[in-house]
Amino acid sequence: MRITPWLYMVGSRQFGLSSRYDCHVYAMKRDAGILLIDAGSGMGHGRIVQNLRDEFGDLSRGTILVTHKHPDHACGAARLHEELGWPIVTSSHTAPLLISGDEDDCGLAEAQRLGSYPPEMRMDAVPVARAFADGDVLALEGFDLTAIHVRGHSADSFVFWMPGFQCLVSADVVFYGGVIGLINTADSSMNGFRTGLAKLEGLDVECLLPGHGMFTLEGGGFHIRKALEEVRKGLIPRCVGQGDLIF
Asked: Within the chain, what is the greatest distance between any pair of CA atoms?
């Protein structure tokens, strides 16, 4: 699904592009190659690959950037890497569990126990070509992204600022409407949002690309400011999982 001349969505539960267990999987295209943002659950990897082929044809060069460890974003990394041959790039926080295929650390084992994911879903080990840290500038397939650690959704959650496009890949940290990705897991915390969201203040964001729900090409900074204002008032902004916000 083409969004702009450089931005596509090739996987998504909400838009019916791949498995019902997949986050939004964005593909960014320049002459240098294709940058894939997140890998989905692995349950719909064939559809993601077919969508890439339908949109671009030539899949000889690309990179897979994994934003954080949760199964709907990371479990597809091994299958896509095997089929496409593209290297995996992720943070130094996430890299060890991808390399080991740790189904406990990524939350898959517990989610399967609770019935959130099917028993056949798995986290297969996959090599990581590059691990980055907070503040690193990544030059990937012709795109420059600054990695920003915002740990409220999970301990390893990163967002990515692309100043050349006034675009923030916000993953599961902050969503359209000022919704935040606070969930009922051990490493998701309001303290993380209190310290982390402030890092996004002052960014001139127009395009906001969250991992679920609605994205926007204009006025993305409004949604970040809305969440930050609520946090600074001592309030908890709307969170994923509340009524119509279930992703």
From this structure: 50
Q: Tell me whether residue 4 is in a domain.
A: yes
Q: Which helix (H) or strand (E) holds 73?
A: helix 71-74
In one letter, which amino acid is 78? A
Check whether residue 87 and residue 119 sit in a common domain. Answer: yes
Asked if residue 186 and residue 90 are part of one domain, the reply reads no
Domain containing 19: what range?
Answer: 1-133
Asked whether the beta carbons of 140 and 132 are under 8 A apart, the reply is no
Residue 217 and residue 97 share a domain: no
- 227: nearest Cα among 187, 247, 198: 198
Residues 87 and 161 reside in one and the same domain:
no
Taking the whole predicted model, whether its pTM rises above 0.90 is answered as: yes
- Rg, C-alpha atoms of the chain: 16
Number of independent structural domains in the chain: 2
Under the banding of pLDDT at 50, 70 and 90, the label for residue 244 is: very low
User: Does residue 224 fall inside a structural domain?
Assistant: yes
pLDDT of residue 240: 83
Using alpha carbons only, give the angle 193, 197, 198 rounded to the nearest 5 degrees: 125
Q: What's the rounded Cα separation, in Å, for the pair 21 and 19?
A: 5
- Render pLDDT for 215-237 as a digit per residue (tens, 0 to 9): 999 999 999 999 999 999 999 89
Q: How many CB atoms lie within 10 A of CB 241?
A: 13
**Side chain identity at 202, as an amino acid letter?**
G
Is there a single domain that holds both residue 182 and residue 210?
yes
* pLDDT higher than 90, residue 85: yes
Residue 245 confidence (pLDDT) above 80? no
Q: Verify that 169 and 232 share a domain, yes or no.
A: yes
